Q: What sequence folds into this?
C-alpha cells in the first residue's frame, strides 16, 4: 500500500515538475506561454494537495494548447472553449462529470483542429505540436470517461497513462520552443513569400501572421509628413518606453529612416527573431524600390515607342505632301500638254492618268490627306469607297489627336484590305467611337474568318502601334464566322457625338 502511495506521489511530482521546469527554460523568450505552463504545473500540485482542486489544471492546460506558441487567443471560438475549461476546472461537479468532460474534450479538439487549419505558412507547423498534444490528452481523458461510464475498473492504469501523456506533452512543447526553430523559419518563409507580390495580403499582415502577433503594425517613414504611416496611409504611433508594446526601427541605410515594426513585446522578444523580421522588411523595401525603378524604365520605353510612332506618322505626312505638291503638279502639267496631241499619244496620256491614280493611292497609303484636312470620319469614307462590298462607317466627326486618328485609320485600312483579300465578305462595319477616356475602334466583317494576329506582319504592326499609344488590339475570328478586329486607344478628350454613315458598293 505504501509503495502505491509513493508511486502516485512520484507521478504527481513528475507532471508538475515537467510543466514548471519547462516554463523556467522558455521564460525569457516566450513569457506568456511559459506563464501558462507554470500555471498548469502549480494547479496540478494544488490538485494533489486539495481534492476539490484536482481538475484545476485543466483551465491553464487548455489555454496553453489553444494559444501555443505565443500565449494569445486569436479567435472567439478559442476564447469560448478556454472559458468553458476554466469553469469546469473550478466547479468540481462539472469536472467530475464524465459527460461534461467529453463535451469539453470535443470542443477542445474542434478548436485545435480549426486553429491549425487556419494557420498559414510555417506557423501551421508550430501549431501542429499543440494539436498533437491536444489529441493525446483528449484521447486519454476520453478513454477514462468512457471506461467509467461503462463501469470498467481501470482508473489506476488510466491515471498513469494520463500522467505519462502530460509529461510527454510538456517536454515536447518545451523542446519545440527551444530547438524547433519554427519562429525564425516562419520569418524565413516570409522572406521567400515576398517574391509573390500578387497575393492580396499586405507586408504588415504577412509579418503579423508569420510571427503570430495579430496586433503587429508596420509603418513606413513619410519624409514629407515626418511620421510613420501604414500601408493605407494612416499614422502609426510609436509606443512609450514603459508600454507592453515595443518597436523595431528599420533603416534602409545608416541614419536613414525607413520603417517601424510596432509589436507585442512577447512576440519578438528573441533578438535573432527581431533582426530576422527587420531584415524581411528591408528586403521588401528594396524590392519595392527596384520595382519603382523598373516601372520608370518601362514608362520611358513606352514614351520612346510613342515618339517613334509619331515620328513615323510625321514622316508619312511629309512624303505624302511632297508627292502631292511636287510630282502630282508636274504630271498634271504634262497631261495638259498632251491634250490635243497626235492620236499616237493618246495611249501615253492614258498611261499618265493611270500613273497619277497610282500616285494618289500611294499618297493615301502613306498618310491620307483627308485625315489631316477633314478628320477621321471623312478619311474612312474615302477609304471605304471602291471596295466591292458594302462598308458601313460609324465614326467620330470631331477632331482626334493625330496619333490616335492615324492608328484608327490604319487599323481600318488593314482590316478592309485583309477582308477584301482573304474573307470575301458581303458587308464590313467600321466603328471608331469615343468611350471612357479612349477611342474604341472595330472592324467587323461577315466573311470566311480565320484571321490570326500572329500569322502576318500587318496585324502585328497594328498591335505594336496600338501598344505604343498605351492601348491594345485583339482579334476574334472563327472559320466561317467572320472576323472582328478591336482596338482600344487611350484618349484624353471628352466624348462627343458621332454620326453613322454608310457607303454602298462601288459600281
A:
Amino acid at each position: 500500500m505504501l509503495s502505491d502511495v509513493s508511486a502516485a506521489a512520484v507521478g504527481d511530482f513528475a507532471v508538475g515538475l515537467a510543466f514548471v521546469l519547462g516554463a523556467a527554460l522558455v521564460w525569457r523568450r516566450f513569457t506568456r506561454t511559459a506563464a501558462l505552463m507554470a500555471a498548469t504545473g502549480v494547479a496540478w500540485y494544488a490538485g494533489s494537495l486539495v481534492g476539490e482542486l484536482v481538475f484545476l489544471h485543466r483551465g491553464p492546460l487548455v489555454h496553453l494548447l489553444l494559444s501555443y506558441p505565443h500565449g494569445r487567443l486569436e479567435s472567439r471560438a478559442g476564447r469560448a472553449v478556454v472559458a468553458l475549461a476554466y469553469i469546469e476546472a473550478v466547479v468540481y461537479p462539472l469536472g467530475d462529470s464524465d459527460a461534461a468532460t467529453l463535451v469539453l474534450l470535443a470542443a477542445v479538439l474542434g478548436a485545435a483542429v480549426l486553429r491549425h487549419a487556419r494557420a498559414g505558412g510555417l506557423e501551421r507547423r508550430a501549431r501542429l505540436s499543440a494539436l498533437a498534444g491536444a489529441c493525446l490528452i483528449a484521447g486519454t481523458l476520453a478513454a477514462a470517461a468512457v471506461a467509467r461510464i461503462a463501469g470498467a475498473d481501470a482508473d489506476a492504469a488510466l491515471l498513469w497513462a494520463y500522467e505519462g501523456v502530460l509529461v510527454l506533452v510538456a517536454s515536447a512543447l518545451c523542446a519545440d520552443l527551444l530547438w524547433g526553430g519554427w519562429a525564425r523559419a516562419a520569418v524565413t518563409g516570409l522572406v521567400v513569400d515576398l517574391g509573390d507580390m500578387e497575393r492580396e495580403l499586405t507586408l504588415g499582415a504577412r509579418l503579423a501572421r508569420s510571427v503570430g502577433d495579430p496586433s503587429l503594425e508596420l509603418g513606413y517613414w513619410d519624409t514629407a509628413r515626418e511620421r510613420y504611416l501604414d500601408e493605407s496611409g494612416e499614422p502609426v504611433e510609436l509606443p512609450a518606453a514603459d508600454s507592453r508594446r515595443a518597436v523595431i526601427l528599420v533603416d534602409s541605410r545608416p541614419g536613414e529612416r525607413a520603417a517601424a515594426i510596432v509589436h507585442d513585446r512577447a512576440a519578438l522578444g528573441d533578438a535573432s527573431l527581431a533582426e530576422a523580421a527587420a531584415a524581411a522588411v528591408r528586403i521588401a523595401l528594396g524590392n519595392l524600390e527596384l520595382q519603382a525603378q523598373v516601372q520608370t524604365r518601362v514608362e520611358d520605353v513606352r514614351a520612346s515607342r510613342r515618339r517613334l510612332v509619331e515620328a513615323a506618322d510625321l514622316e508619312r505626312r511629309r512624303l505624302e505632301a511632297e508627292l502631292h505638291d511636287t510630282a502630282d503638279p508636274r504630271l498634271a502639267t504634262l497631261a495638259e500638254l498632251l491634250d490635243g496631241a497626235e492620236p499616237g499619244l493618246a495611249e501615253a496620256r492614258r498611261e499618265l492618268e493611270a500613273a497619277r491614280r497610282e500616285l494618289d493611292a500611294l499618297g493615301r497609303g502613306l498618310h491620307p490627306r483627308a485625315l489631316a484636312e477633314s478628320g477621321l470620319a471623312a478619311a474612312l469614307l474615302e477609304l471605304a469607297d471602291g471596295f466591292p462590298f458594302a462598308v458601313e462607317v460609324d465614326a467620330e466627326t470631331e477632331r482626334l489627336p493625330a496619333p490616335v486618328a492615324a492608328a484608327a485609320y490604319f487599323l481600318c485600312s488593314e482590316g478592309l484590305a485583309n477582308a477584301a483579300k482573304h474573307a470575301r465578305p458581303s458587308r464590313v462595319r467600321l466603328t471608331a467611337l469615343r468611350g471612357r477616356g479612349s477611342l474604341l475602334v472595330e472592324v467587323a466583317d461577315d466573311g470566311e474568318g480565320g484571321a490570326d494576329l500572329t500569322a502576318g506582319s500587318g496585324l502585328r504592326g497594328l498591335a505594336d502601334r496600338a501598344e505604343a499609344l498605351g492601348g491594345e488590339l485583339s482579334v476574334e475570328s472563327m472559320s466561317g464566322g467572320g472576323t472582328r478586329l478591336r482596338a482600344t486607344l487611350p484618349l484624353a478628350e471628352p466624348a462627343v457625338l458621332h454620326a453613322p454613315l454608310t457607303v454602298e458598293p462601288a459600281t
Summary: DSSP finds 16 helices and ten strands in the chain. The longest strand covers residues 245-253. Strands lie at 217-222, 227-229, 245-253, 256-264, 390-396, 427-434, 438-445, 472-477, 483-490, 498-503.
